[in-house]
Amino acid sequence: ERNGRTENPMAHTPTENRWMPLVGGTMLNLVLGTFYSWSVFVLPLEQEFGWVRQQTSWVFSIGILTMAVTFVIAGRLHAIVGFRPLAVVGGVLFSLGFFLSSYTSSLTVLYLAYGLLAGAGNGIGYSIATPVVTKWFPDKRGLAIGIAVGGYGAGSGIFGPIAAELLIPSVGWESTFRIYGAVFLVLSLVGAWLLKPAPDGYAPAGWDPTQIKAAVARVGGETTPAEMLRGRSFYFLFLAFFFGAIAGLGLISQLVPFGTAAGIGSVALIGLVVGAIGNTTGRVLSGAMSDNLGRLNVLRLMVVVSAVAMPALYLFGSNVLFFVVGVFAVYYCYGTLLAVFAATSADFYGTKHFGVNYGLLFLAWGIAAVAGSQLAGFVYDTFGNYQYAFFGAAVLSVMSLLCLLAAKNPTAATTA
Question: For 109, what's the count of Cα atoms within 13 Å in the CB-facing half-sphere?
Fold first, then answer.
């Protein structure tokens, strides 16, 4: 004690430049997020080789499933291998996957290069930035994670249009893959170099953890994966993440064909650009909001907005302005999930085992990503219109809300 006041034992941690790791993580995720621009390569490849959509859709599904699995595996390797080496491995594999995709001569080559290789690099690399910035920003966890994963959301919105509008028409899909492979290698290596881990026990100068908002307060020790799996809260979070993600991803997969059927011009470009802006904004802004309003409160609010926005988009989406606003809203709510669920995992279970704990929770997204587009396509093929897909997504959002209402922070004295 000093002057009758208990000192924060972490308050005297030496000042560190914590913004460089955030820049590095955002840069790495910007590269990895380009995985979502796969759609710009689909038509050129189908025209070149005579493939149908059912065949090429498996490329993305394989990549997403590989990403989800390697994300968990990488989480177990954080403490053994280290964040920077794993970031390098992830960046190299991802870049190599893009480069080798330029030599596609069969579906098998494409499945292996873009699906497995780039997918594995994506999962390994994406597992790095969040735990690193989580430890650098205990005072602004939601905002920092939102910025880092916001880079991932922005990747497809930047590199996708460049490929679609500039590179592929001028140099072809083969050279575009090669150019991106080289560019991504450089950017990911720079990002990995900037991802310096925080010192043990790091706290920002002058920060008092006792003043943290009650809605995000956490007390108690670090939770191991085994302990986490024995609690009910994990399963409520898992189901909430799954229902929210499958609703968002399933609907997102139908936006371009829905917009085309509704007579919206340049619908693919609108989907890429407006979607990326909404996705990135949702990650950053909702992440920041969750620092003040509470993680669960923000998640509950966003799934309610989703439940309203999705049917409204179907009903009024033939209007260009409303289509743009609706696409932004759907992507915003989806982006919120990726930022705030990560921060929620850190609040609920601590940061020591974050890589594995969040990796297990992230599997909900992986399952939803594989199943979402297939489910939405099945609904359309069965009923012949988009009504059930859009209204079904709203029902899934309500199911996510019910799970979030049941979820409680297992270690906080005051829950959100």
Answer: 12
